[in-house]
Known about the structure:
Helix content is 40%, strand content 21%. By secondary structure, the protein is an alpha+beta fold.
Amino acid sequence: MASLTAADLQRRHALEGAPDPFPSLNDSEPTVQSKQAYTNGHVNGLDNSEVSFPSLSATPTLKPTKAPSSWGSGSNGIRKSAVNQAPVFSSIFTLPRVELTRAGHDDKHITMGSVMKDVMAKTKTKIEASSQRTTGATTFHIKGDSERAVQAATKHITAALSPHVTLVVNAPLSTIGTIIGPKGATLKKMREETGNSIRVDIPRRDTPNPSEESTVPDQDEDEEQTLPITISGPASLAEVVRTEIIAIISTKKSRSTQRIRDVPTHILPFVSFKKTELQTEDIAISISEKDREVVIIGEREAVALAIEAVKAAIKDWESTLESIDISLPKRQHRLLTGKAAEELIAQTHCAVIPTKFDEPGDIVTLWGKSEDISGALGPVYQKAKSQYTQQYALPGPLAYATQIQTYLTRSAYLKTLLSSYPSVTAHFSSPTLAAKVGAVHVDFIGEKAQVEAVVKQLADLVRNLEGALREIEIDWLVHKVLIGKAGKKIQQFQEQHNVLLFFPPESSESPVVLLVHDPLNLSPTGPSPVQKQAHLDDVQKELLKMATDAADVKSEIIKVESKWHSAVLGKSGTTLNAIIGEDKVLSIKVGSQAKLGPSALPLGQDDILIRGPSSEVDRAVREINKIVEDAKNDEIDNGYSVEFEINREYVGRVVGSGGAAANKLREALGVALDFSDDNDEKEADGKSKKKKTGSKCHIKITGRKENAEEAKRRILAQVEKLADETSEILKIPRSIHSSLIGTSGKYVIRLEEKYSVKITFPRETSEENGLEEAKGGRPREALKSDEVLVRGGKKGVAGAKAEILEAVEYEKDNSNTAKFTVPARAIPRILGKGGNSINTIKDETGVQIDIDKAADSDGGLATVSLRGNKKAITAAKDAILAISAEVSDETIVVVNIEAKYHRNIIGSGGQHLRELIAQAGGPTDPRAQAGLIHFPRDGESADEVRLRGPKAVVTKLKAALENIAADHRDRIVLGVAVPASQHRALIGRGGQNLNDLQSRTGVTVQFPGSRSYSSVGEPKNLAELGDVDPADLVKVFGPSASCAKAIAELSAHKAAPERREHPTKASLVTKAVSVPIKYHHAISQQGNFMRNLRSFGVNIERSQIPEKPLSRPPPSTNKTAARIDEPADSEDGVEWQVVPNYQDAEEGDAEWILKGRDEESIERALGQLAEAIDRAKAASHVGYLTLTQRSAFPKIVGTKGATVARLRAETGTDITVGREDKTIIIIGTEQALRNAKEAILKIANNNNRGW
């Protein structure tokens, strides 16, 4: 027999290309076998075990022999130097069948040799292959310098040459989450282990499973619903993934789901009540009242036991439960559902079943055992009346009432109203019930007072809605265009016509748009219903014109056999999403199962309805027809791929944080994305290499052709936008960063939104950046402590940079600081009531003030920190130290005064106290007066009045208060009988005679019928008066001597009424004064001047009254609008206009006659009138200051008008802050107007400054 060589043996066993079983003994390094991805001899799912691939012979290990010298055995011969070779990794695997029929990207058929050549070039490996003729299997031997390169080559060969198959695994719903893994980790790992050559598609849970559509299980036990998981890719790798998924499923099959169907409605509450008793850790019980079924999920054995227990309980209830019907108002039914029903069944062992809310009727059915029902009636009635309920019917026919309901819900008016009444809840009647009864009702539940208040406000609103509602129909596809492109125009509808627009939710596809004349923005004399309808007519006309111009919408139905609908839809609707496009201006409904509007005709089984702009409809029809044609010709290749490159710098933004952007694209279009570049291959040996600037990233998109092309278009569009992006690092001291960022980042957010940039400040510590990276987020840029990164479009970065640097300069100028200490007890005075004092100092100086309140209050010191420019800091410090010095001279004295005298001592609005403080030499400013006298509050000693202030002032106040208290203690109430017919004459016109009497005698006189008549108490001499008629009894309250004097005068009037019928006419003092008519309005101050004179007994009669009412010319409308790209603290856009005062006033003089009880009061009135005339003459001009926004107005007005009052006093002007516009009116001299304007703008700029 002829001898056989190793090559002959390889050919006989079809093992050409297999590794040499007898390697050369001269190899300096042995071959290193590659580590395998799987144990037991499997490489990537391919059998590589010794059993399947035995060695060709069991050759014993040979000991290496010394190679002879090239020059003989002598020691002096030249020897070859040893060569250090890198380790060699290898892998051997066999493909049972090689598929070479699939075309490459250039539509040319590929060969195994070309595939091997490409893989070797790409992975830097050496590949040898041998085929077995009998079985058709092909064995590949791969060698490489790294294990990673060998594994990559194995995956490439398997993916390129294995037959592509599609496998389906039906997975129970409960296992889907485990198969996908946290954030898709398990699926991602499967794809990576197979070289991303395997595609695993899991449909959404709402996608019907074709295998389950035809059968509906009738049995109580369900084999859990399944979803078909599709695995596509090379056969061997697909089988590996399928095996892994089946293994995951097998670990979850011990669970079972069983149902008890058709449970009687009245028994479900009893099952629900017993659920907590039956439920354990091994099972979960859920009850569906809608489907009338009980579902139990959990461990199979525990589920079976629970099912038996529930069935037995249901059978027992069916035989023992009885019912009784009671009648309760429908609005009270809501108090017997939900938690209330659970409480009742626990308390009474009876279930309460009200009439369905969709059905009219007042019947409530009570179910329970006969011995329990009678005892349950009381608790049910009590629960039904546990809260006050009231039903409010929306007026008008059903259509009008429905419009009101739409406005109340869409405008959130009712929600806002109820937020002010936390105990009240509101419930609209269901649409079904409203249609049956022909009306819409609102049920209110809560406390009676709050419910009635809510109903009253709602009724007022509904009245204002009369003539204010209208519905128009506009194709719902145009709504998005109107809201987007015409958004500013729609906003003008509200500004010009006071009309709001409410578009329906896009998902409803409803064409009805509700127009509402806003009832919440009406003046007290609002427009009539006719005027409202006119506004609605104008808006409707413009809106319909805009809708006509917005889009040429049309509908088209095309016929497509239902069997091809799946091709049009795509997996999970991905193909349909690609057809509709990113703007979603199309509506496509497929087949008879499509959900259409109530008025639309149903679609046929083979119909596809397309609606939208004409051009888009035509495009969609062409694409659908092409998809169907391709499906019919079986030419659709879900393996279609498109490849292109982008710069590496954009990859992170395209992929998104944690792959979010790429995953979103995959889900929307159903494509596979693969990002790779040359660096990935060059790093196969484990050595990191620096990425070259401007290097490219290769992107491969695999999927349906239309979807892949759409994904490519979207990525390139995003890259084009990113190409314009730039970044710049600004050097800014860290101490200024917090001011630039603002509270909760509001200043930096404003800049980001204004310029469309991203501004990044450095982290506090480097550990924070590392922590964020460890959590899986993208690490922050590595910035130094004084660096700020601005990234975005070139124009936006330049604008943001300029504004930031401007703000930095401002902060540097205003970042001077100063610290000093003040006594801790001076802090309350420095702050002032409600912060008034400290806020005034801040407004006047523009300084930021921080006070450390943690100091010891017992004689300790508190630290005050100031921040601003040097001049302002000095002024603020002097003001604070001045207040502190006043506190140092303070003393505290307590005066005991009975609580019953406190009200009289304080006076109306504190007037008596203010006069008392002024007489004692105290301050006249109400804010400074506030802390001098403190009357007791709840929880304090009722009689102690505490005085705190300078010693001299406190001493005088104490003496004055003690005198007043002594005077009050001596006061008594005496009565005098005066015929009721004389009371009017005693009181006099406007109470003048009564005021004169009280002023002369120092008493208070109360006539029957006055508000305080009963509160002064009973007369001390009531017994002496006998049976006096209560209508004639006049009470006199005051010191005993004064009371006697007043009673004497009243008695004298009673004795001679004829003689004293007009007691004051003869004694009145009169004085005539000539006053220019044009000053009348300025002097009268809307009647305040006259009322002030009457307070001390002086009346005025005018010979002539101005015919023209007071009016101010409106400011000029030719102002320039503020630029939107200017900073918020700029004065640009502020309008200032000064016009002469009295320019249109009437000329001439009028005679004013002053009448008073004595010369002293007349002289006092003359003095005040002269001062008023001088002020009116000085008010020579009127200034109109129009700001860009009203946000600064509260700061200008101040707490209770304190700031504007201060400005009036300091500038000598009359300042009126507009309530409905942005204009402030200032009246005074020209110089005073300028001073007032500067002071107001200073406050406004401090309020609006962005830093």
